[in-house]
Amino acid sequence: MFKEEIQAWRYGPVCPAAYKFYSDFEAKQLPIPRQESLSGLPSEKKELLAEIWQYFGNYHAYRLSDMTHAEFPWKKARKGLPPEESSTEPILLDDMKALGYQKLDLIEQEHPAYKAAMSEVLKEALATESSHPIGKGEVHDWLNSLLD
Length: 148
Known about the structure:
By secondary structure, this protein is mostly helical. The protein has one domain. The protein is built from seven helices and two strands. It has helices at residues 16-21, 43-56, 61-69, 72-78, 93-110, 114-127, 139-147; strands at residues 7-9, 12-14. Strand 1 and strand 2 (12-14) form a beta hairpin. InterPro entries: SocA_Panacea (IPR025272). Residues 1-75 form the Antitoxin SocA-like Panacea domain.
């Protein structure tokens, strides 16, 4: 969504430029963006932001902070620092992407139709002869090819 660095601050991940921009609000809740202010964004980004807001919008800041402290990108960037220690260590984009893929997999698996759909996909796949065996680390790609 943006290219600025995200750092592993004491209370969670922070984009310093965004922090500075919104610093006048201090501990007050930020205003909900008006639809007009999002008009320049591509529709897929608007949809993503809407989903994020729908899922996380009602969480209190302390709950969001606790959630980020449990995730590996923040922990990795802090390199074992005590919770009260300040830090400006960057959180790696690759780590955030990996976390995002993990979260998407979990969301997909929690869908009510997931088990039945996967059962059907596997039955169909196992009923056909394969021209080559699936190698180590290829199961995820194989499953994706079946779903395409």
